[in-house]
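Worked example

This section walks through a single chain of length 326. The input is the sequence exactly as stored; nothing has been trimmed or padded.
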Amino acid sequence: MITIENLCKRYNRVDAVRDLNLDVRAGTVFGFVGENGAGKTTTLSILATLMLPTSGRAYIGGHEVTTDPAQVRRLIGYMPDSFGVYEDLTVREYLAFYGTAYGVAAPVIERRTRELLDVTNLGDRADEDVGHLSRGMQQRLGVARCLMHDPPVLILDEPASGLDPRSRVEMRELVKNLRERGKTILISSHILPELAEMCDEIGVIQRGALVACAAVEVVTARASGQRQLAFDVLRGGRVLGRVLQEHASVTELLTVEDERVDVLFSGDEAQQAELLRDLIVAGYPVVAAREIGGSLEELFLRLTENDQAPPVGERGAAEREKAGTA
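Given that input, the structure is written out below as tokens.
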């Protein structure tokens, strides 16, 4: 659905984006991870037809963003990292205004407004002035605005920026809901654990270049080379911690409590099963052992501590051909 080929954007002597290549399949949530100034917003602005690249090409739904921008705009809903709102309009009026701007027929606007208020959990705020909404509600309203013309692609630039914890959870659930409805979503953020919760794939971008691009679990596994295991015990967690610390495949103790021990484990699943069996046979009261997803903050630091870090987890040509692009 989204294809980027050798995309570059240069400002004087500075490369904001350099030789960026990317495929985002239809129905996928893809997350751009990077520090401020890494090139995320520039890339999204080019895809939204708001900025011309220095070189390279980008396509959405088969339409090139520089040669067919009008058709691209029909296919996308774009929410920048900061946007103004008409504070004196009610929520319902705000959505109707944008529906009209998108050229949506009046009967469709009314129906779609009801649907989007339900999707964004703003139904009880429909007749409230936009200026009275919290920032989190305004962000969800911004997403609803992008959906008034029912585009298949959403481009969201830092949608959780500045939100409180509850609002970030609500935004995350909204993105998951939209994925279930078949939307293709390209989302940028520096709030890394949240991207792990809602994205199918991530691309780590640094100084305008991708340093990693793959499914979240693949990138995490290849970056760390180990897994985090949590052992729940009835009692004696500190004793168990000392035992685990001596195991050849345990590289670090992370958490040691009376009823729980977390470790970094470098072995495979067979070695994990063998370790659990040995602990139970030895009489340690282990009631559960489970794997915990790796930290994307740690991943980001690992991948960006070297400017020349190569991409990891890239899908091979055969897999790309099999998956196809929309």
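What to look for: Residues 307-326 have pLDDT under 50 and may be disordered.
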